[in-house]
Automatic annotation (TrEMBL):
Name the UniProt record assigns to this protein: Sugar ABC transporter permease
Localization per record: Cell membrane
Classification of source organism: Bacteria, Bacillati, Actinomycetota, Actinomycetes, Kineosporiales
Disordered: annotated segments: 1-33
Lineage: superkingdom: Bacteria
Family to which this protein belongs: Belongs to the binding-protein-dependent transport system permease family.
Keywords, sorted A to Z: Cell membrane, Membrane, Transmembrane, Transmembrane helix, Transport
Organism from which the protein derives: Pseudokineococcus basanitobsidens
Amino acid sequence: MSAPTAARSAARGPDGRGPGGVGATTPARGRGRSSAVRRAPWMLMAPFLVIFTLSFLLPIVYAVGQSFTRVERSGLFGEDGTTSGFGGLANYRQALEGTAFVESVGRVLLFGVVQVTVMIVLATVLALLLESASARWPGAFRTIYFLPYGIPGVIATILWSFLYVPGLSPVVDVAGLLGIDVDFLGPSTVLWSIANIVTWAYAGYNMLIIVAQLKSIPGDLYEAARVDGAGPLRIAWSLQLPLIRPALLLAIVFSIIGTLQLFAEPQVLQSVSTAISNEYTPNLAAYNSAFNNNDYGVAAAQSVLIALAAFVLSGLFLALTNRKDRS
């Protein structure tokens, strides 16, 4: 074999496929394998992304688009046809010019300030008591406190209405025998009757969030605190409360969002209380605009405003708490 032929044979390798034989195809196989690795997460996430897009993103996009759509009806009831087109901010202007909607926003803000504060304090106290060293049967009491959360809001409101309606409520009857006039469904008290239902339903839920954070505290910290002579109250104030701050922030943010979504409780109590109007809360106002007034554009605008309010309030709360931490 001549020298050039031997050189060409050595360059091809023993199997004639080039330098390294089979290994000559390794880069191409490596590129194919890395491409498959990159596609694998997207293929696994595809079902979730499809469901998330159809059930979450598309309704939001449609609602935002609907909020800028103005529908004009011909005839008294629209019997001569309807025309729709871009309405700009007309729906938002109409929603904000309605005093009832603005008053409903102020009403739920007052509700949130009082109810969320009371509920978070109650949930924190329950969690600290159940996780104290002297607590007996904590598992049973956790289950009992959490059970109201498992009852749908409509059913819970119906159950509580039996304690609010005069003639049915033993509380009202006993108070009447004592000469005390109690009206749980009056204009000045019905909001706090609703707050009582919400607190009863969600205090146990928030308690479990805090309990989960308490269980993550290392036992060595408790032992060190006891060695330093700290009692139960001192441990709760100086050790547990600072360490459960993330859970408290999470519970408060969830509660702020839930406050602006208040709907089922006032809607059910509306049948037994004349103090609750069709626009008593922002969600009720949006429901009334859509299904009683057939004004879906205004309802969409109100819904977008509610979502923006929840986003802004939650963001402001988190920003204020983070600012305090940095200072």
